[in-house]
Design a protein that fits this description.
This protein is mainly alpha-helical. It has six helices and no strands.
Length: about 140
């Protein structure tokens, strides 16, 4: 049986793939900054509706300062990622921009080892090297 988190990850991958293509369409005739701002407004409302429908009131009392710090930092890095992703998407090919963005997996692997002390196996190293090779093939002219 496949673990539920793997199914969630594949669903995320599917929607992320759609996101880039439909965002590029949405940027037609407007700046990347305006497009990102409008998209973020929609994301905000969808997430609020999601939170209202899924988070138990009692769970809010579990929040600690560390949650605010790390999730706030995550929000800041997400915002910066989106700003530069939309700037790249406005002028670049979706396939190339999306692939370079997915190189973030390599950064995540390194940071997971350094900060979270996750084990990096030979399989993960080989996969990351293949991803890096793919990035070099796609971005080199």
């Amino acid at each position: 049986m496949i673990d539920r988190w793997i199914i969630y990850a594949f669903i995320s991958m599917f929607f992320a793939g759609f996101t880039s293509v439909i965002a590029k369409q949405g940027l037609t005739g407007i700046s990347a900054e305006l497009g990102l701002s409008l998209r973020t407004i929609f994301v905000f409302f969808f997430i609020i509706l999601f939170a209202i429908s899924t988070i138990a009131q009692s769970e809010i009392s579990l929040l600690r300062k560390e949650n605010f710090f790390w999730l706030g930092l995550s929000g800041a890095t997400t915002a910066l990622s989106w700003v530069f992703y939309y700037k790249a998407l406005k002028f670049g090919d979706v396939a190339t921009v999306a692939l370079i963005d997915k190189g973030s997996v390599i950064v995540a692997i390194l940071l997971a080892a350094l900060i979270l002390h996750e084990t990096i196996t030979l399989r993960i190293i080989i996969g990351a090297c293949l991803m890096m090779a793919g990035l070099l093939v796609i971005t080199t002219k």
